[in-house]
Amino acid sequence: MNIKKDIRFRVYVAFTGMCLFGLAILIKVVMLQVKEGPKLRALAENIHTRSTVLPADRGNIYTEGHDLLCSTIPLFDVFVDFSVIDSSLFYQNVDTLSRQLSTLLKDRSSSAYERELKAAYRDKEHHKYWSLCKNVQYNEYQEMRAFNIFNRGKNRGGFIVEPKTNRINPYGMLAYRTIGLWRENAQTVGLEATYDSVLRGYSGSRVEQKMTGNVWMPIEGSVIEPKNGKDIITTLDLDIQGIAEFAVKDLCEKYDLQYGTCVVMEVATGKIRALVNLGCQDDGKYFEDFNYAMIPTEPGSVFKLVTLTALLNDKYVTIDNIVDAEGGRIRFGNLTMKDSHFGLGKLTIKDAFAHSSNTAHAKLANQYYYKEPEKFVAQVKKLHLHEKTGIDLAGERRPVVKTPESKSWSQTTLPWMATGYEVQITPLHTCMLYNAVANNGKMMRPYLVSEVKEYGKTIFKRKPEVLEQAIGDSATVAQLRACVEEVALTGTAKSIQSPFYSIAGKTGTAQVADKEIKYSDGVYQGSFVGYFPANEPRYTIAVVMRTKKRAHTYYGGTIAAPVFRMIADRVFAAGKGWDMPSDSLDRSKAKVLIAQKATGSSYHTLLGAVGKYAPVREDGYIEQVSVDSSKQLVVQEQPVYKGYVPD
Question: pLDDT by residue (tens digit) across 87-102?
Fold first, then answer.
């Protein structure tokens, strides 16, 4: 019992001690608040310091031609503290201030400004932070601070400014999704996200002391200067980007499509010269809203190049071998493979590719890989279609390539995979593959940023990266090139062949099924992927367009191939990447265009852009283009005299 009493006594003592200690703390807090609080607060007001963040300037984003794509500009929100403005000063100058504000901001009349200012001043005790205007640019801010009343400063004129920064794109929506969006404390996308650590820089800081008049002064020796972000130089070409965006938008609007995406890649290097992603909004307008080029989908017939590459690499066939398309209808397991156009019988593999026969390619894949499907999948993986391209742009998704070990593999997987179904790759992968064919078998990794600069000095320069030295031997590549050229000569893309340069490529049309869309919804994806000029490739272009539900026009040759032709025409006419002597064009195929007077170089660009031809003098004389009685194009010199404007 004595032991229990002793323990109980010790517990009581400990508990009582803790309560007394807590009570003492509470009493001390109350004393500080009530007795010493005012004194301490007054002292804090006199010696108060604060740490202020000095934000770094975010780096700029440029094209390879140093056109500014994205930059940061200073903006200002302006407030007025009416409580510090003397009444005589206010009423003597409010009319002048109102006129000045109306003239500068142009958002309301001077009388409206005067009414609002007077109303706010009458209730000045409640308007110590009255919002006048937001997002004022620097030149406007400089002008505003000299206005009547405001020129007295913050303490007498009540002029309060809150500086901030805003990220702008000088070319509006051009490459908007690729450039991306930077938002503080929110998700960042595009190059802004990928290169955030490069563009962001490092913030500085300084300690400030509060002085008389509510003015904060930096304390000497406390300043840590910010380190501004670096600039990035992209591979984008402003002209090609604009051309591609116009072409995609034109076809999207013409056929009321859900979205369109386009990748333009430089053959030799893998540089992305243009990247377009236009989606249809609720109001029917098209906007760069999502990076469709990096989303894997079932590619359709453009994937037949993979099937052909596998067959040629494994030496099972040559493109001159005969295959029987069996009228465009063959049964595999419990499903029937059909061609979009029936009637094809025995034909060469080259012609089967040119006419995009589903049955021919499915039959060949099933014939040679049915017992060893892993060999076909191995060829797909050799082309790096099972992994991300590794492009330096945030948001790329991984392709979906089935293997014989996949749970969903069945006896129909291989033939359907051979025609671009039961496999999902991105338009960027497709572009990379066809670019390898254009590049004599060498596969290049696509990339978007070529340089990083700091204060105008290059501190990093990226070199083109070879992803696969050869996707096949020289014989394989030669046969692949012959097949994609045949598509534009006699096959499904013959309608876009140009008289001025040769085209090689492949059309593709696929029914779409994903999480929200069923095959029965009648949504299609039309594609065209190719390169030009076919004999000396400079650019590879991948175009993928998706229809809305129950579309009536959906073939790749109709909704995608014209985009390729439109881009190729204008890029070729602009001479992007090669010299174009006028005598190198075939004048026998020229068409006539009636036009007005302009410089020769202007006609060269204009007529070339619309697929026409006119002889042009190299010395840049003013010329008049007209049509004679035999409907031939006639170019006449128009002399230019000093001091006169040519008519």
Answer: 999 999 999 999 999 9
